[in-house]
Design brief:
Blueprint lengths: L10 H17 L3 H9 L4 H19 L4 H20 L4 H35 L1
């Protein structure tokens, strides 16, 4: 078929897919499967691509937060970056960073949802 391209299979795309799969497993309470996914990633580049997606998700969601919460989320991203940098080249250390980065995605998503609910309640009360 002309004009149709195959889905991208770049390292970044595979990392993004693994990050989303990890989050889905954790949200479903399948923490052993999520941990197994991380353990199966042995190349530091693979780990970094997964982390890049977690970072992108957290930052994208963090930008929707009220100002004070956004500032706190930004500070946590700096700390996560420092954790990543301390563990360059160490797969186990990078897995620790991934667990923390995934937890940050979940935290920011919960905060964003709570902020949306509050805004909705304020709008309906006003």
């Amino acid at each position: 078929m002309e004009g149709v391209t195959a889905p991208s299979d770049s390292s970044a795309d595979r990392g993004a897919a693994r990050a989303r799969e990890y989050l889905q497993l954790v949200e479903a309470g399948r923490t052993d499967d999520a941990e197994q996914l991380l353990t199966g990633l042995t190349d530091t580049r693979e780990l970094v691509y997964v982390g890049a997606e977690f970072t992108a998700l957290a930052r994208r969601t963090g930008r929707t937060l009220p100002t004070a919460m956004r500032a706190q989320a930004s500070s946590r991203q700096v700390l996560l970056g420092q954790l990543r940098d301390r563990n360059r080249g160490d797969a186990d250390g990078l897995r620790t960073w991934l667990r923390e980065a995934a937890a940050e995605v979940q935290t920011v998503q919960r905060l964003a949802e709570a902020a949306r609910r509050r805004l909705g309640e304020q709008a309906s009360a006003g």
